[in-house]
Amino acid sequence: MLTAQINAFFAEGLVSYVAFLHLCKEMGTRRFHSAEPAQLSLLIEAQVQMKEAFRFLVAGCICISMLAGGRAAAQQRFWQGNSPEERVSREVFRLVNQYRASRGLRALQPKRELNAIAMQHSRDMASGRLPFSHQGFNERVAAVRRYAKIPYKVAENLYANTSGHNIALLALKGWLASPGHRKNIEGNFLFTGIAVARSASGEFFITQLFVGKKE
């Protein structure tokens, strides 16, 4: 809805600006006597059109700001805790999107349902119920598709580390050094789910899901 309003504002602004230019051209090609009413009328109309163009431009910019702010606020609702796991999740999300932006790719949008699916796998690995692996990936894909209710493609990156420092950055570097993991990060995906769990020995297990429409 907001995107449609932005397009409408800029379209109206463009129409007003074109009308302003047309009036300026007309005033430049016609000969007027000093203070002739027709000249004053054109001048007033040109000023009105310029003000309208400026008004619509400002309105469009305000809408863009609102749209960007809304998206940022939506993302900030995730991983709000101050636990080490939450901080790592936030940083993974930030770094992956930062890297995608550097490649001219769209930012991934977080989804609570995807976080929950990723969290189950991270906890299973941290508890030892599952080894550090993609075991159960097909079940996670099925869970994503049950949530999405339309055909989606799903990819997954995993990382494990006992270090308590720069875990998110180390994860990103490790993924980018692997062709398969890098392909997932650079893929044509729309959404992501990120979850971090820690084992009793202090090892961090990261699961990141990438979800996009089937092409």
Please specify the SSE layout and strand pairing.
Blueprint lengths: L1 H28 L7 H40 L7 H19 L6 E2 L1 H16 L9 H12 L3 E10 L5 H10 L2 H7 L5 E8 L5 E10 L2
Parallel strand pairs: 1-3
Antiparallel strand pairs: 2-4, 3-4
Helix pairs in contact: 1-2, 3-6, 4-5
Short account of what is shown:
By secondary structure, the chain is α+β, with helices and mostly antiparallel strands. It has seven helices and four strands, in the order αααβααβααββ.
User: In this structure, how is the largest beta sheet organized?
Assistant: 4 strands, mixed
Per DSSP, what share of the residues sits in E-state strands of 2 or more residues? 5-15%
Quickly count the helices: 7
Q: Within the CATH hierarchy, at the fold level, what is the topology of the largest domain?
A: Pathogenesis-related Protein p14a
| CATH level-4 homologous superfamily of the largest domain | CAP
Overall average residue pLDDT:
77
Which structural class is indicated by helix and strand composition?
alpha+beta
Strand order of the largest sheet: 1-3-4-2
By CATH reckoning, the class of the largest domain would read: Alpha Beta
Number of domains: 2
Radius of gyration: 27 Å
How many strand elements? 4
- The assembly state of the depicted protein chains is single chain
Q: Quote the distance from N terminus to C terminus.
A: 26 Å
Poorly predicted runs: 31-35, 66-76
How much helix, percentage-wise, in residues? 55-70%
Task: Kindly list the characteristics that best describe this protein.
alpha+beta; Pathogenesis-related Protein p14a; four-stranded mixed beta sheet; 61% helix
